[in-house]
Write the structure tokens for this entry.
Amino acid sequence: MLKIVLFAAIFAIAVQGYHPVEDLLEKTEHGGQIWAVIVAGSKSWYNYRHQSDVCHLYHLLTKKHGIPRQNVITLMYNDIAFNVENPRQGIIINALHGKDVYEGVMIDYMGRDVTPQNFLDILMGKHLSVGSGNTLKSGPKDTVLVNFVDHGAPGILGFPYDELHLANLTSVLNHMFNHNRYHQMFWYVEACYSGSMFKNLSPNMNMTVHTAANEEESSYACFYDNEIGVYLSDCWSVNWMNNTEQFLPNLAQETIEQQYKIVKEETELSHASIYGDLEYIFKEPISTFLGHAKAAAKPKPNSGRKITYRKTATPDVMLEYLKEKKGRMMAENSEEAERLDEEINYHIQTEGKVQEILKQISRQVTGSWKMVAVFSKSPQSIEHPECNRDVLSTFFRLCYKMQTHPYITKYLYRLTNLCNMYSSDKIVYAVLENCSHN
């Protein structure tokens, strides 16, 4: 028993962000430091790619780009490396090289500490009593990089058990700007509908955001690993990280604008987008936020793995994963295959049920089936973020959660559209009426 306790303590020290003291902090041209906050907002094996992307970036920043480890704050549920479904225990591989990216990653906040509130508190530099306690200590001379990877919906970024809403994020970003928490800030955001979080971002806040998708669409998973049965990366994320590695060790040779245009061209199906300051930060070299890379040989692709290049819309990945797993189990374990078949059928039926519930909510709010068709046509811009937050929070609480039913994110715009014409009280009441039985 004592050995188990000692091992747990050693493991916690190894991964929870207890960093060795660095010799020197990398300085920006303004005399400040580079800080980074990187977040994998999901959990569960089928979301493997999110933690793989974040681990990959962690090494890019700390090992290749020279950013001190204590300046990189990492939030990750940490249920992939030692997941029971992982045939290579303790290892997470990335899509670009097939190499282990888990070893050496210092995770500051894991498990139930990966929450929207902790993330927002970190951005504001507040002291946290959980995890490593590491927080963003940036000031008016510093540059800040934020990378967020997970599921999304109109006006929402997902976390393992909760959601980050546009209204809350906007408030914190305004606070950071007004309190001189940074000189410049740059975001990479991999999520469906990620553009909806930043469409109205002011160009005067010294902040630029590059997203995997615009306000109206899903992002996509890529690089399916046949051996472990999951996607290793998201298409847009692997494109921008691959682009960055192509310029090693001379990251000052490419600007934010140049990278955006290249990655936008390379990213198919979803429309990579950019928001905020498109004048000054747009012209900055990517090294301003990613660090100045150390001279090193570029890693060679690992050609030994059986990887299929295919693209799947993020909301559909879970069902595809279950179907693939059922196919493998049919020859190995018929009882498990039967259980998986029941789970698949449940989700297929639930997806249809969710669409019907949303129609009924729209009908109750608008009083007209013709108006239901109007509000169900396509996503509209989010004009009332507080209404969006109140309505979707109620739906998640009483109906279905996007974390356990990710396919519902394809239809949630039907609720958010209503906020542009009707009061949140009226919509919330309709949600209560139609979801209370679930």
About this structure: The chain has 13 helices and 13 strands. The first strand starts at residue 34 and ends at 40. The first helix runs from residue 2 to 15. The two ends are 43 Å apart (CA to CA).
